[in-house]
Amino acid sequence: METKSLFRALALLLAIVTAFMVPCALVGLAYGEAPSSLWIYIPPCLIGLFCFVLAFTGNRHKTALSPRTGYLFVTLGWLLSACLGSLPFVLSGCIPLFSSAFFEVMSGFTTTGATILADIEALPASLLLWRACTHWLGGMGIVVLTVAIFPLLGLNGKALMEAEAPGPQVDKFTPRLSNTAAILWLIYLGLTVILFVLLLFGGMDFLEALTHSFATMATGGFSTRNASVGAWNSAYIDGIITLFMVLAGTNFALHWRFMQGKPLTVLRDSEWRLYLGIFFGSSIFISLSLADSGLYGSFAEAWRYASFQAASILTTTGFATADYLGWPSFAQAILFCLMFIGGSAGSTAGGIKVGRVVTLLKMGAAEMKYLLNPRGVYGIFVNRRYVHKNIVYDIAAMVFLFLSSVLVSTLVVSAAGFDILTSLSATLATIGNIGPGFSLVGPSFNYGFFPEWVKLWLSFVMLLGRLEIYTVLVLFTPAFWKR
User: Fold this and answer.
1) Distance between CA atoms of 173 and 408, rounded to whole angstroms?
2) SS3 call for 63
3) Closest CA to 245 of 313, 196, 311
4) Which pLDDT score, from 0 to 100, does residue 176 have?
5) 233 labeled part of a ligand binding site
6) Alpha carbon separation from 72 to 20, 160, 163, 433 (Å, rounded)
7) Taking 60 as the threshold, does the pLDDT of residue 164 lie above it?
8) Is 316 annotated as ligand-binding?
9) How far apart are CA 437 and CA 410, in angstroms?
């Protein structure tokens, strides 16, 4: 029974993914692409139609999928979505090798934003929009969207949402999980629409505003220009995107609390306060470093570029308005440190997450108190709520596995003959879902020079980071496959 439910859930997910290809083809027609060139969407859409029929075939009795099935579904769902999403790029000939197309689409779905394309502007409008759609679907989570529709299939998606959700635990703020998923997507959609309108006022055309809205709210980073957001050289666009990157990196549960008229709940949130503190603190120090170097004419101009890049790296968006490899070493060091942190739990950002940093800082403080007074009892409290030791251990183990994965992947990439900084930053940029890194994977370069097997490896690393390590690695344990 659960196997059938697993296949029906996967079929629904793939049907949702291919449904987003239809408007991409229509936009291609509107932008003058020949109808004959849009046949690339027909094979995946036919597969999606078959999956839609398959999803609604069979009994509709209420079925709760187990955590074991949840982990398998989420991992398979992302892999199959990336395979299906690669077809338009391969069929069009824009990315002829499947391994490279898979890397590009996995980068989109995981909101990494790393690209193998040297000339992005040469892509047709329909494929530019499809790249952005992979971001937008992956940002809030294709599984979260699927869970919102699960009641129609008679399925309970709690285990699935917990396996995909970005953070230590799911913040369920309505009695029904499907309603929570729907609310998250409505907030996500609302912020995307607002940003889209603001970017139109900034001088972007329809396609540019739409794709950059998708990429910003998903903290993805795919742009329609080779020079990324810097191509517009607009202080207005830089400021608007900086603001919305910060909003996208905020826990979406806090957006919901604010909409409910509970601003004090937001202001008291320790993770959010530290998140803003890291953003403003790093922006100030980078601005001072840039102003002292004389690269920019004034502190205000330095702040514009520093705050944008700090927000881009902290929220793991990966946009760029300047080549920060030409910045002073101190400014680069701050950006490098931000690559380890990431945004808030429950946001669309990647990385370790600020919430885990808060918990581990309090854990360290509690341990030092215990060393001074071994008879004392020191609990860990976050937002005035006691954090159970199981959650603390879970966070500590996740961070250990994250850092261990970084070391292993750095060794794998360096085995292909690349220098340590390129290998390390490429790993950090992919496992943290950031996109640009340092050295050969800096903001002015791309990932196209890597051998195909390295691209496939980094695709796996992206998935590992997006699904928060456990969901993927648990599939490689013998215990998972035992009855």
Assistant:
1) 38
2) strand
3) 311
4) 58
5) no
6) 24, 9, 9, 21
7) no
8) yes
9) 13
CA diameter of the chain: 77
Q: Whole-model pTM?
A: 0.92
Per the CB < 8 A criterion, the answer to whether 204 and 237 are in contact is: yes
- The enclosing H or E element of 273 equals helix 270-293
Percent residues over pLDDT 90 in the chain: 60
The answer, yes or no, to whether residue 254 has pLDDT greater than 80, is yes
Residue partners of 195: CB distance under 8 A and separation at least 6: 213, 216, 217, 240, 241, 244
Residue bearing tokens 């881009």:
312
CA 302 to chain centre: 27
pLDDT at residue 118 tops 70: yes
Considering only CA atoms, which of 115, 100, 186, 108 is closest in space to residue 144?
A: 186
Query: SS3 for 381?
Result: strand
Residue 326 makes CB contacts below 8 A (sequence gap 6+) with: 295
Structure letter (DSSP) for residue 6: H
Q: Report d(CA 417, CA 454) in Å as an integer.
A: 11
The answer to whether 477 is a known ligand-binding residue is no
Between the CA of residue 13 and those of 69, 143, 213, 219, 280, what are the distances in Å?
15, 7, 23, 22, 39
Of residues 28 and 167, which shows the higher confidence score?
28
Q: Report the alpha-carbon distance of residue 55 to residue 50 in Å, rounded.
A: 9
Report the amino acid identity of residue 221.
G
Q: What angle do CA 84, 245, 85 make, to 5 degrees?
A: 5
Q: What's 385's DSSP letter?
A: E
**Which of 72, 62, 66 has the alpha carbon at shortest distance from 155?**
62
Annotation-wise, does 141 bind a ligand? Answer: no
Q: Which amino acid is at 111?
A: T
How far apart (Å, rounded) are the C-alpha atoms in residues 362 and 381? 8
Q: What's the pLDDT at 482? A: 80
CA angle centred on 374, ends 373 and 379, rounded to 5°: 85
How far does CA 433 lie from the centroid of its chain?
Answer: 6
Distance CA 291, CA 306 (A): 10
> Is 219 labelled as part of a ligand binding site?
no
- Say how far apart CA 146 and CA 362 lie, in whole Å: 36
112 assigned ligand-binding residue: yes
